[in-house]
């Protein structure tokens, strides 16, 4: 057939292995996509997988998928998104910019620059997926769950 996750085969796999979460294939791939390419995700299959499996689902290869696809994937049942490639790209761009601004920037300065850029990326991604203002460090309060 195709390269997408079959809901019934996934159900059997989950039953036989007892996994806590499952990474599903719905149209994304790891790494950088060609410039200007945005993948087409199979949201109907994703919703069926969520209904069939009723467990946390993982989107591998979320980098470069576009905010609209990510929001819709979350709405269809994705609970964890892997976007390491996007985070690394943000860090690299920040380091290149720092070296452009200061060609004598040392290693520590570049590391701090990369770390700060990735923190900002993660904060923005948390907003994209609708998870901002849901947890506050140091508190056990979860918004909407008193």
Features:
three-stranded parallel β-sheet, 7% strand, 5 helices, 146 residues, Rossmann fold, 2 domains, elongated, mainly alpha
Structure explained in plain terms:
The protein has 146 residues and is mainly alpha-helical. It has 2 domains: 1-82, Rossmann fold (3-Layer(aba) Sandwich), CATH 3.40.50; 84-133, no CATH class. The chain contains 5 helices and 3 strands. It has helices spanning 7-17, 43-53, 67-75, 84-101, 107-128, and strands at residues 22-24, 57-59, 78-81. A 3-stranded parallel sheet has the order 1-2-3. It is elongated. The model has no long low-confidence stretch (mean pLDDT 92).
Mean pLDDT: 92
Proportion of beta-strand residues: 5-15%
Summarize the amount of helix as a percent range.
40-55%
Q: Name the helix and strand elements from N-terminus to C-terminus, one letter apiece.
A: HEHEHEHH
* Structural shape: elongated
Number of strands: 3
Q: Strand count, sense and closure of the main sheet?
A: 3 strands, parallel
Reading off the top of the CATH hierarchy, the class of the largest domain is best stated as: Alpha Beta
- The CATH level-2 architecture of the largest domain is identified as 3-Layer(aba) Sandwich
Number of domains: 2
The low-confidence parts are none
Assign the CATH topology of the largest domain: Rossmann fold
| Biggest β-sheet: strands ordered side by side in the sheet | 1-2-3
Distance between the termini: 46 Å
Radius of gyration: 18 Å
Structural category is mainly alpha
